Amino acid sequence: MTKEIALETFYEKYKELGESKRNIFSRISNKLLSDNFIYGQILNDKDDYYKALELYDILSAYFNIIGFDIINDDNYKIIYLYTTEDKNRVHFKKLETIILLILRLMYKRANLEISSETNINISISSFIEEINKTGIYRTDYSNTNLQNALKTLKRYKLIDVNFADFNENSAIKIYPTILYVVKTDDINMLLDRINSYIDLVGDEDEVSED
Hints:
This protein is an alpha+beta fold.
C-alpha cells in the first residue's frame, strides 16, 4: 500500500480504538521498534503476539508510514519488522557478528539432525568448541566479551541463555528468529562468511542482514 493509503487506513482504524486498545497499540509498537521481534513461543511475548494479531491491520498501516513492513509467520508465531527503506538496522560488532553466524551454523546443523525448525538447544561446551575452531581467540577476546556478545543477541530475542549459571554444562537456546537475521541456509556459505569476518581488522564491523 502507498503511504497515503496507509495514513488514511491508520487514521480510520485508530479512531475506532478505545483507550485500552490504543494503549496496547502504543506498547506493542514500541516493543517492535525496540526488539524487532515478538516471539509468541516465549512466555513474555505469548500474550503480546495474539494482541498484535488483533491489531495487525493498524500496525501494518502505522509501520508502512514510517518505512517498515510488519510480517507474521504463523508457523513459528513470530511477528517482526522489515525495513523497506534500508534504515534503522542494528549494528553488531565484529565478535557479535561472528557469534551470530556460528549460532546460525549450529542451528542449521542441528536442524538437519532433527528435521524440525524450532527452538534448538546447544551446549555451551559445543558452542565454545565451535568458537575455538575459528581461531578468533588469537585476538584475545575474553570470556566477558563472549558473554556480552551473547547478551546482545539475547536482547534481540535470537537466543536465550542463563548467565547466572554460565558453564560448559549449561545450554544456549537458539530461537527460529535467527532465520530472519541470517537468511543464508548453506553451510559452506556460512563458514565462508565466518572466516571473512574473522579476517577483518577491528571489531566494529556489522552483519548486514535483514
